[in-house]
Structures are given as C-alpha cells and as structure tokens.
Write a structure and sequence with these properties.
The structure is a homotetramer of 208-residue chains.
Chain A (H helix, E strand, L loop, with lengths): L1 H36 L2 H7 L4 H7 L3 H23 L6 H18 L1 H9 L2 H6 L2 H27 L8 H21 L10 H12 L3
Chain A binds a DNA duplex (21 and 21 nucleotides) through helix 1 and helix 3.
Amino acid sequence: MVRNKQVIEKRRIKRADQKGKILRAGEKLFAKKGFYLTTLEEIAGGANLAKGTIYLHFENKKDLFISIVERKLDILLKKIKEGIGEEGSPTEEIKKLTKVHLKFLERNRNFFKILQSLSKEYKREMEKELTERVIKKHTRYLGIIQHLIERAIKKKEMKPLDTRKLAVILIGIVHSLTINWISQGEKDSLSKDHELVWEIFWNGAKQA
Amino acid sequence: MVRNKQVIEKRRIKRADQKGKILRAGEKLFAKKGFYLTTLEEIAGGANLAKGTIYLHFENKKDLFISIVERKLDILLKKIKEGIGEEGSPTEEIKKLTKVHLKFLERNRNFFKILQSLSKEYKREMEKELTERVIKKHTRYLGIIQHLIERAIKKKEMKPLDTRKLAVILIGIVHSLTINWISQGEKDSLSKDHELVWEIFWNGAKQA
Amino acid sequence: MVRNKQVIEKRRIKRADQKGKILRAGEKLFAKKGFYLTTLEEIAGGANLAKGTIYLHFENKKDLFISIVERKLDILLKKIKEGIGEEGSPTEEIKKLTKVHLKFLERNRNFFKILQSLSKEYKREMEKELTERVIKKHTRYLGIIQHLIERAIKKKEMKPLDTRKLAVILIGIVHSLTINWISQGEKDSLSKDHELVWEIFWNGAKQA
Amino acid sequence: MVRNKQVIEKRRIKRADQKGKILRAGEKLFAKKGFYLTTLEEIAGGANLAKGTIYLHFENKKDLFISIVERKLDILLKKIKEGIGEEGSPTEEIKKLTKVHLKFLERNRNFFKILQSLSKEYKREMEKELTERVIKKHTRYLGIIQHLIERAIKKKEMKPLDTRKLAVILIGIVHSLTINWISQGEKDSLSKDHELVWEIFWNGAKQA
DNA sequence: AATGAATGAGTCTTCATTCAT
DNA sequence: GATGAATGAAGACTCATTCAT
C-alpha cells in the first residue's frame, strides 16, 4: 500500500513535469511566432513529446494558449500581492508594485510578448469562457493598482484624478518601456527603469 | 489624343477607387478579426470586388495588410508634421502633437486596433522587407517626438532624462488610454483625455 | 451579350459535369468501402479533381454522402411514379412497381450497397437535418406501396392485413433477394426474380 | 495441489467474467453507435475495465466486434437446432424456426442492429479471416432452412421453387419486420408477427 | 482588366494500439 | 495480470494563390 502510494506520487510528478514541459515549450514558441504560426507539432517537438500527448493535458490549442497566459498572470498576481501590504503608505506600495512588475516582465519577456499579441483578434476566436479566465485576472491586477491610487488620493498624496485612468497610465508606461526594451534587443536592465517610471508618474500625479 | 488622355485618366481614377475600396474593407475587417481570421474572400466581398482583383493591386495578403498600416501611418505623420512647427516652444509643440495624436486615434480606432495586433507575431511572419516599411515610419514618428524633447531639455524646460525613453513613455500613455477607451466601449471622448496625458507627462518630466 | 450568355451556360454545364463526376466517384467508393473507409482524397482522385473542389459542391463529407443517396432515391421515386397509375388494378400496379424496383436495384447495385449500410450508425452521426432528407423519401416510397395495398384490400383483392407491414414485407422480399444476388457475385439477372417475388407475395396476401 | 486447482479455477472464472463484461458492453455500444463511432475507451468504460485489458481478450477492435456477432449467432444457431427436429413435418419445423428466430431477435435487438450494420463496408475492412467466421455461421443458418425447404418440396408440401431463394425470402421477411419494429420504436410484440410471416410465406410457397 | 473556379499545402484533432510499471 | 500514459498515423477541412476565360 505504501509502495502503491509512492507509485501514484511518482506518476503525479511525472504528469506535472510533462505539463510543465509543454507549457514552457508553448510559451517560448507562442512568444516567438504567435498563436497562429505556432503548430502543435512544433510545441510537441519542443517538449520532446508526441503530438497526442498534449491532448492529455489540454483540450486543444486554444486551451493550451490560454493556460499559458493564465498561469503567468497567476504568478504575477501572487508576486504583487506578496510584495505589497495594506499598512504602509499607498504611494510606497505603488512604487514597490511598479518595481515588482518591471522585474517580472524582465524575467518573463516571453510571456509579455504573448500578452501583447493577445489583441482583439484572439478575443473573438478563443471561446468566450476561456478568454474570460484571462481577462478576469488582468482586471484584478488593474483593480489592485486602482485601489492603491484611491487610498493615495484619500490621504491627499495624489491629485483626485480618475483612478482607473491613472492605473491604466501607470501600466501603460511600464508596458511601453518594456516594448521599447524588447525592440532594442533587450539590452541593459529593464527593471532599472523603475526609477524613471516613478519619476514621471509620481511627479505627474502627486498632490502639489 | 486628348480623348486618349481622358481615357487614361478615367482608368487611373477607377483603379484608385478600387484600391481605396479594398483598403477600406481590409481596414475594417482586419481591425475586427485580426490578420489570420480575416479571409481575402471576405475583404473582396466587403469591397464588392472579386478575390482575384485584390491581386491586381497587392502582391498578397501580407502586402495588403502592411499597406493598410503604412497608409495610415503616412496620414498620421502628415498630420503631425502639419500641426507642429520648428519655431514655437518645444513644450507647446509636444502638447499640440499629443492632442493631434489622440484625435487621430479617436477617428481611426480601426487602425489602432490593427496596430495593436501588430505584435512580434507579424514581424516574423511578414517578410522583413514589408514590415520594415512600417517600422521605419513608426520610428520616424518616435524621432519627431524625441527631437522635440531634446529641444525642450536644451531649453531647460524638461529634465535631462533619456529622450528616447521619454518619447516612448509619452506614446505609451496615449496608447494605454486608447486601449482603455476601446475596452470600455469607446464611450465619451478620447481626445478629451489629452489634458490628463499632459498633466501627468508634463508634471513628471518638466524641470522643477 | 449573347456571347456572355453562352459563357454562363458553358460554366453551368461544366459545373454540373463536375458535380456529376463527384457523385459518381462517391457512389462507387462509398458502395465499395462504406462511409468511414472512403476518404475525400480518394473521391477527389476518382473524380479527377482536387480535394478542395469537392467543397465547392458539397458542404462536407456527410453532405456528399447524403446527396448521393438522396439523388438516387429521387430517381427511384420518379421511375416508380412514372411506372404506375391510379386507374389500373392496384394489384397490377404493385406487380409493376415490384418489377421496376428490382430493375432499378439491378442497375444501381452501388446505390443499394450504400443504402444497406445506411444503418442506425449513420442516423446518429449525420446531422439530423440531413438524414431526414433521406428518410422522408424512403417513407414516401413505403407510403406509395401502402396506398396501393389499401386499395387492393378495399377491392377485396387482398386480405385485410396490416397494410404497413405488408408493404414492409414486400420491400423486405425484394431487398433480401438483392442482397443474395450481390453476395452470389451478381450473376444471372436479378430482375428476373420479379416473378418469384410476386408468386410468394401475391399468393400469400391475396384474398382466397 | 487442491488449493492450486481452486486458484486456477478462480482465475478462469474471473477471466470469463471479464470477457463477458467486455462483450456485453461492446454489444450495447456497437448497437447504439456502430463500429466506427464506438471507441475502445467507451467500451472499456462500459465494462469497468482499462483499455489495455481488452487486448488481453481480443486481438483488436475488429476481433472484438466479430466475436460479439459470432457469439450471438452461435446462440441463435443453438436455439434453432434445439427447437427443430428431423422427424416432424418440415413445414411445421420451418414454422417453429420462424417463431424461434423472431423471439430471438426481439430479445436481442442490440445484436440485430449490429448485424444490420454488418454491410459490405465491414466485410472489406475486417480482415477476411475474421469476417468469414461470421459469414460461415450465417450460411449455416441459411443452410438449415434451405434443407427444410428441400424436404418440404420433396414431400410435395411446397412448390418446387429455388430453395436458396425461398430461404433468403423467408429470412428477408423476418428481418424487414424486425427493422420496421425497431424503427417504430419497438412497441408491441415483434414475435407476435410470426403468424403474419407464416401467413404470407406459407400461402405463397405451399403447393396449391 | 476583372473574374472566380480550381488547386493542394498545411494543421488540428482523434483514437487504435503498444508497453513500461 | 491489469493498467492507462504515450504514441503517431490518418483524414477532414480551410483558404491563399493561380490562371483560363
């Protein structure tokens, strides 16, 4: 019986390994060539598995794609939540969050490339239910920032501007610098720019 | 002979009409469904022409796509250039330019949606030569802003930060607000936000 | 204009020819190997056309299959209707109809083989709407025979048995002989057996 | 040693149980969805066994399918043989046999549905050797009826018609009524129709 | 010049079968 | 013996592109 348990455990681990391999191969390839130009055959090859095996873990190509995005967003969200607290000054929290975000993007450039390609296009194609999984998470992240900004405004640390738009702008700045960094060949450190982001955003939004 | 000229002229106009129809149908459809999910059949239908006719004007699907983007960027660049001058205060020029850009995006949301989908994905797929046509124009636009920022810095109107990154940030803010506007259903006026963009960017970047 | 008309007419004919080729190739192959083991590639090959061309004429494999069956049933029904009248003795009409049916099956053995394979299996798989097209026609044929039998009973030419079952039995006799004929290598004449069919059915069902 | 025998016996029973489960699950599913649309996974599920286990009892999917049919035909043949004798009037024997056959079909409608789908299609696909197992049994059944008819003719109870064809017709009548019964929703009793079958066949074939 | 019929390369997906555990 | 994870062959279907008319 104990042996049986071990066997089951081994299998579980193997399964998880396999799924991981597929997710990683998919991430790399989708980032490089986009959803449509990446074939399941390639992903299977990249994961050193047979085509059919992918279907043991994912319903279909779309499901795999969405799963990749979802998983990364989960990680980002988790990091963000771990990094910030409710007690400190909201301004400080936003600053930290920006740093965490940039660091995450720097380390997960593949993911970012995929996210960028997640344009309207996919939203039509990919079954609603699936996409919504992703959108929900993205919205939650936006919500976290928005909430911090609200608190900052209440504390008179920031000007009473539209909080959603401010959150959108902050993420926009981060993303535009990431795109620039990627298009410049990913040289230097991206996360170093966190000072610049803050310089602009904070001076722009702070209560005079 | 004179008659001949008229005939030739008529033909030219007819051809231009046709091309215009295709470009407009393509813009609408590519914006709605993305590059891969839009078929030439649909575009031909949208332009009230036969599929084969598209090939009289464009080399292939990619060429058509790139042409649409290129053409719009040309218009944007032209508007920008018309809108700004070399004499005035560079700060004022940047402010004007931001306004023009937002107005353009508001009126050409279709185009923007396409631009957004122009992620890495396409850059691989679309033969280099083609994409470069677009990138060049985008870079030129970035260059214009960068140049204005440089002038502003020289005039001590702005802090001596990395000019490329500042330009990137400005465009990033504009784009993120546009995405937000679209995702919220394109309600209210987008160009109205030009005040907000400026508020943030200017206070963030101005010489204290 | 006249020339134009001719061109259109030519095209129409070519199209019809093509469709005919596909139907004939499909009939032969479906009869030989059944629905599942016949590939569209084979049918296309048999019709000397490319795979894609089939999709210009039929929605998909099922549609092609059903169309083949439907078309043949149409022909059978037409022949039956032409062969019989309302005035003569119903018994005579049934006799004629049996003859026509056997002759048709003899000449269209391919079709019969397909019909035989049209078991429950397909009725599940093939979208309802499609199958119903076929079932309706089959039912109509059954109805014609049933109607004749009713008339024969009214005229006291036949015993007052269940008319539907009698019709079913008559067709059953015809089909079983056809199956036997095919399984024996399609030797001799099948339609010659029409005397035998009649001998059994008539003596069995006639009013003593 | 005695204990050993018991163990071996237990195993044999377990194996037989397993095989029985598979055969029953297969019968039900093949009848419902046909050969191609039924997956081994489903059958395994229906038998509460793993996919691989099926291969311990049957060579492959086809073998399983044929085995199901063969087994049922064995049972039918056995019942027929038990039911009839060599001494009585051949006419009486045929009558009995018809009754037994209808009763069997009524109780084994699943099997009949499978048999019906056993069209040419399968005969090609399923390796010859396998199919022949089934055909042989079917032929044997036909032979029994044929033999009885021959005896009836010799005794001048029946007209001297082609005995094979008469046998084919009799089975044809029985089958067509069964198909009709199934297509009408399996209402009423099928075996009740045995009177009708006999009425038609006997009056049709008897010596006047 | 304009058409649209014809093509066939390319891809997702299913599922019988194998085999390590 | 029993399992079910892994495989990969096979096939339906789409659609950009060509070219005869």
